Amino acid sequence: MLEDIQLIYMNVRILRFWALLYDKNVKRYICLALSIIHVLTQILYMCTTNEGITGIIRNSYMLVLWINTVLRAYLLLFDQQSYIQLISDLRSSYYELARMDDRYIAHLLAKMIRQGRLMARGNLFFGLLTCIGFGLYPLSSTERVLPFGSKIPGVNEYATPYYQIWFVFHMLITPMGCCMYIPYTSLCVAFIMFGIVMCQSLQHRLRRLRQRLLNPQQLSLEIIECIIYHQRIIDYVQTINKLTTYIFLVEFLAFGALLCALLFMLMFVDSSAHIAIVSAYINMILAQILALYWYANELREQNLAIAVAAYETEWFTFDVKVRKNIQFMILRAQRPASVLLGNIRPITLELFQNLLNTTYTVFTVLKRIYG
């Protein structure tokens, strides 16, 4: 039962409510149809707007978020069986670890559950702040402004009663988009977090070999089981890559540009309310990126640590056959299984730092040009 695995239960439940996972009903077509219509009106607006730089940046931010939301929903529907299979694999591995009746493993699982629930709730909280920001921005303006810049052909969307109707539509669709967008990120991070626990449990199993009095045959079987489990970890991470690597690449490029644009936008806003709203937008981007890059970096480090744990077994004292098996395991662990960006580069904190450095450099150049 997924209810027992609180790491993913909240995210799966929200996605299932919108029929993006498991269930297949009219809700998925409603949310996708409304989102696509909304994106089309935003694109039309961006092509015809005469707004200033702040309006263009703000609406570009929202357009990117909505396009990303539609892409995520499409990926979930297109690869639904793969996502369901990955969840099934996680569930099987979770119960397998829980049945080991090991205090250290139980501690790892409990810690993972706490962090996963906190991360999911935190992301939803930042999403709520952003939704509030979308609603408050028009209210803080001196003229009629919609939460999202949108253009309806043949309709003056700022005239009564179209403005009120469209404003209500925007405020109704915003929570729906938030529930389509944020649980996907939290679910992907949860997959990565469980991969970290799998690596740590394998390290624990390898280090315990020295404490257990095993005869050569038992030791050989134990090492073979560890190698098989290591391959399961590699296959698990590769499955995550297959499902997420290109959407992570799109987000990396889009969010880097958006961060720069939002920082640039802070130079133009003239009220504390607008500064607070733009800051909420920036915080949402950073929260989404940092959670992903932090745990992806940890997954890579824990995969590397498997080689250290295997070396610490004092493998050189074992029989030749066992020695060779451990050596192969050490060699493979030195090429750590990692979550990749566009199947090109591992997602690490170094990459996150490079993103922030590049963003700030471009922002500084724009600031000097503007000055």
Describe the 3D structure.
A hairpin with a 3-residue loop joins strand 1 and strand 2. A two-stranded antiparallel ribbon has the order 1-2. Helix 3 packs antiparallel against helix 7 (about 215-265). The N and C termini lie far apart (about 60 Å). It is an all-alpha fold and about 375 residues long. The chain is about 80% helix and about 0% strand. It is elongated and about 85 Å long. It is built from ten helices and two strands, in the order αααααααααββα.
Question: What is the arithmetic mean of pLDDT?
Answer: 86
Order of helices and strands: HHHHHHHHHEEH
- Low confidence ranges: none
Gap between N and C termini, in Å? 59 Å
Beta-strand residue fraction: under 5%
Order of strands, widest sheet? 1-2
What is the strand tally? 2
Structural class: mainly alpha
Question: Number of helical segments?
Answer: 10
User: Portion of residues in helices?
Assistant: over 70%
Largest sheet: 2 strands, antiparallel
